[in-house]
Write a structure and sequence with these properties.
The chain is mostly helical. It has eight helices and two strands. The protein starts with a helix and ends with a strand.
Length: about 200
Amino acid sequence: MYAAFVDYFRTHRIAVSRWLAAAGLLALAFAESAWENTPVEGITFFAGVVLVGLATVGRLWCSVYISGYKDAALITVGPYSITRNPLYLFSGLGFVGLALATETLLLAMVIAALLALLTPPVVAQEERYLAERFGDAYAAYAARTPRFWPRMRQYATPVTWVVNPRILQRRLLGSLWFVWGVGFLEVIEDLHKLHVLPTLFRLY
């Protein structure tokens, strides 16, 4: 069952991620941080905004390099020269950052645990596909490039890069989801302060 779920998540990860994010934001409409008016409130929100900013810029960066090339070529430059899975890395930062922007710690830990559980097997499946498709070229790339954590000293970027503008435009919009999420959280907090939304439970 776990393998089937991982396979489903791999093929529908964008839709699943958006539905989970929407469900989480809806639940947060009736929740309030237990850290309100404490130093933890400011620290968690600031950390969340920093991570969301990194995630947004990182995903935009990745989009430039894969727009029009996905599955058609092995990309080994730009963000893909320092890590084999920059989109997963930046998306993970974004989800944890969005959780921290709720000014809670528990939600961020739950999100981080889910990412640690789901991401590696999904990435492993994709790597098997890439190994079959690109053979020795991918094997050499995997040998010198870490799976997740960037190795900055081997960063390489081309002088020019050709992209498909239509695909890039769609990816640019998709990269802004985390920023919109932070804005939505702020709207929810203001509605709580105005007593428009009830607080049914608190999150630590």
